[in-house]
Amino acid sequence: MKYEALFPTNKLKKFNKVEAELSSRAGLVKYGSKLPLSMEILERLDPNTYLLQMNGKKAFAESEKLLEPGMKYWGEATHKRGDKFMIKNLIQQPQFFKKIQENAFVDAKKVLEAFATTSKTPFEAKFKKEIINQMAKASSREEFIFLNQLLLSMENQVISIPVTYDDRSALFQYKYRKEKRQKEDDEVVKSLDFYALFDILGPMKGKIIYFKNSISLNIEVNFEQSREFLIRNIGRSEMVKEMDISIRVVEDEIQPLYSFSQNNLLDLKT
Fold first, then answer.
1. Percentage of the chain surpassing pLDDT 70?
2. For the chain, which domains are there?
């Protein structure tokens, strides 16, 4: 299914304008803002104390949750005393996110431009061709396997796009859905499920629904700070007047639409 066929072009352009604004503003956010923090656990010092790297600096932190050294997490930090912090609401970053950051090759702005314009060749076909071109130029087995995962994702009807914006990388996934009509005269409900992974916002998922010439946008995030950021920035757009938007925080860890095989991505010695 072509992206242009899912939503009317005039509404699609408005949606992508907001998406572009969010990507631009997200790239300008600095650590220390009221957003989830990205932290790497360097060492476990005692049952509740850890040495971690946060905002480019090492720090001591206490956590009631058992953390794994060498792994990265999103979470919230409050200063406790001296050089020690208390960290909470921790969510482990997917191991494949590091591969996304190392191998992202798609300019986010070009993706948005492709979505917002009508073309005889759908974006998915162009993206698949670009993946194959990148595979032909892959400089390592690891890079080749990563690109192959993108093709496997497409075979599972999920488009996984490793994008770059400013000096950051992110993952965006989407999958089309089209519900059958209950009755002959009923309108078809078209929707797009999506998942996004940003280093400064954490994971998010949602659904865009088009029904009876209207569009609704539902987003779920794991952090209240991420929700507030999205509300502030989406609220600045004129699109809000024409869309029903819902953004809420969920406790369960948000999962991708397509999970990259850890065996293929990480076990490169076999």
1. 76
2. 3-31+95-261 (no CATH), 37-92 (2.40.50.140)
